[in-house]
Structures are given as structure tokens and as C-alpha cells.
Amino acid sequence: MSGLTTYPTVRKATFYEKLVDSKVRCTLCERKCEIGLNVKGFCKTRANIDGELYTLVYGDLSAIESRPIEIKPFFHYWPGSTALTFSTWSCNLNCDWCQNFHLSKLEPQPAKAIYYSPEKIVETAIYHKDTGLCASFQEPTLLSEWAIPLFRLAKERGIKYCCYVSNGYMTLDVLKTLYEAGMDGLKIDIKGNEEDYGKYCGGANVEKIWRNAREAKQLGLHIEIVNLVVRDVNDDDETLQWVIAEHLKEVGAETPLHFTRYFPAYKFDKPPTKIDTLEKAYEMAKKAGVLYPYVGNVVGHKYENTYCHNCGEKLIQRYEYHVINYKITDDKKCPKCATPIPITGEYLRKRE
Q1: Do the Cβ atoms of 253 and 291 come closer than 8 Å?
Q2: Are residues 263 and 279 in the same domain?
Q3: To bridge 104 with a disulfide, which of 138, 204, 215, 246 should be the other Cys (CB 3.0-4.6 Å)?
């Protein structure tokens, strides 16, 4: 395995501890894998080589694409903008319904990888006139050693924002280091309760995920929460109420909460989520005090729009992943009743 270190996408990891007998403990995510000599961790992107932990995906990108920020979804973060979006391989969870399984279920292959430097990504974003950078598609935590210098460079070069679309299972050390490097947006996917994570996602401590959402909010990052509602898994009233209650407790009423529609993928062939289930979740959230709930993955639905929580005025009309009409004032208020509306960044009208 020591031969791997000759490849440009294999670099010594930042987040780990040395243990006895040449073992190491990875501290990138809350799995905190103890990894023996010449063994890989759960995610298959970290390997113990000669008693040191290495990342196998440093600048190894599986996809690069300029995409609307609304597709993440971020609805209150630089609306109308595009982000140069990128990903690597594998994941630190193992969800049966993964929508991007063609990326998240493949291990990295350093011998075949093409190395992308942070400089190359920043130059590409500037060339395409993207406002921000976004690590997405599969779990971006696995790219963190590379994303940290990338985000620093991006902010130095005038890129407006840097964000993760994540399952939220990184350690606090990683979260804080990303923030210090320039990450200012975080969308976290909540899969359900502890039982759902154990049965369908390879296990995870969901309280650590909510903790990260809370800590990110306290650090000053823009936070949005997504709950992929999966039929016969987490679409019951009890689970939906639990998600809503945790959301209010940990990130507050003004933080957007998206209930998105599941479609069959990977190992899961249950029918798509019923639209009336998503509408019910929306109404439950509104009744509980969430100011900005949304329904997602239902093109043209009225609940993909933003409404003033005070007077009900339609403020942002969306269709699919595009802003059709934007009425929030320049000082970020409702034009009808002057209620402040929490928007991070500026509205960027569609460029010609």
C-alpha cells in the first residue's frame, strides 16, 4: 500500500491520531474509525500507510459543473446565483436510497485519478462567472483536506461564498477548520431518527448531526436543513414531528426546513413519496413555528416559493431550480409589511 503515496491525489491526512501498534484513529467524521496498518476506513478514502493516515482523494474530483444554488437546495443563500459544484468518491454513510450512488458507492482509484489543484478550480469558477463554490453530489467531508486551502484561495480571489451540501457527520474540529478557511454555507440532510440511520444508512449518531447544525449556526454559517421524506421509512407523523421539533430546538424558527420528495434509487424501490405527505409535513412545520418550510422535488409546487411569514405575501417565486420573480427589497424586507427576511448574500438576477 505504500506505493499509493506516489500518486498526486494521495496526501497525508490532517485529521487523525496515532494509536499503539501502528494503528490510527481518523477524526474526520464522527465514525472515528480505528484503522490498522495497510487498512482503509469505513469510507474507503482514508488509509493507514506505514502508521500514518492518508487521504486518497486529495483533489480527485468525480464531477465538476456550474449549477444554480437553488438546486442544492439553498433558498435563502445567494438566490439566483450559480456555484461551481464538485465532488469526489464514496461516502461515510451507506444509504439504501442514495440518489448519487454512481459516485458515493465507488471507491477512489488513485492510479487512475486526475489531480485538480485549488488554483484550477478557482480559475474555472472565475471563467464561468460563478459566484460561489459548492462541494456536493456525494459527502464533501471526505474532500476537506483539499477544500480547506481551496476555500481560503477562493475568498482571496473574490469568490463570494463557499459551501457544503452534507450529511453533517463531520467532527467539530473539521467543521471549525472549514469555517476558518472560508466556508460560510452548510446544507445538512437529515435522514430521519436514530433508528432510520441504523436500519438504512449504515448507522450514525443523529444527535451529533444536530449538534453540528447548531454549532455551525452559532459560528455564523448560513444553515438550511433538508429532510428527504422516504415512503414507509420516515414519512410517519411521529418522525416528521420529531424532525420539526429538533429543527426548532437546534437551529431556530428562521432556518429554512425543506421536505423533499424521494424517488426510487440504488437498492430502494418503494414508490416516490406522496405529495400530500410532503404538504402535511409543510403544514405541521408551519403550525409548530417554522417560518420558512418548503416542499422540494415537486416541480411547480406552490410550497417551493418563499412567503412572508407575517403577511403571507409571495416574495420569491421559483420554478424547478430557477428564481422567476423576486420581490424582497434591497434591504431584505417584505415590500408589503416591511418584515425583515433572512437572506444571506445578494439576489443575483439571471445573467444573459
Answers
A1: yes
A2: yes
A3: 138
In 3-state terms the chain splits into helix, strand, coil percentages (rounded to 5) of 30, 25, 45
At which of 286, 303, 320 does a domain end?
303
Question: 253, 217 in Cβ contact below 8 A?
Answer: no
The pLDDT tens digits of the residues spanning 323-343 come to 999 999 999 999 999 999 999
Does a structural domain hold residue 310? no
Shared domain check, 169 and 131: yes
Q: What domain count does the chain have?
A: 2
State percent of the chain over pLDDT 90.
98
Per the rule left: phi > 0, alpha: psi between -120 and 50, beta: everything else, 158 is left
Q: Residue 1: what residue type?
A: M
Running DSSP on this structure, what letter comes out for residue 110? T
Specify the DSSP element, H or E, that contains 83.
Answer: strand 82-87
Express each pLDDT in 32-47 by its tens digit: 999 999 999 999 999 9
Mean pLDDT for the chain overall? 97
Looking at the structure, tell me whether residues 23 and 168 fall in a common domain.
Answer: no
C-alpha cell at 261: 420528495
Cβ(345)–Cβ(221) below 8 Å:
no
Residues pairing with 86 in the sheet: 64, 135
| DSSP letter (8 states) at residue 22 | G
Cβ atoms < 10 Å from Cβ of 102: 14
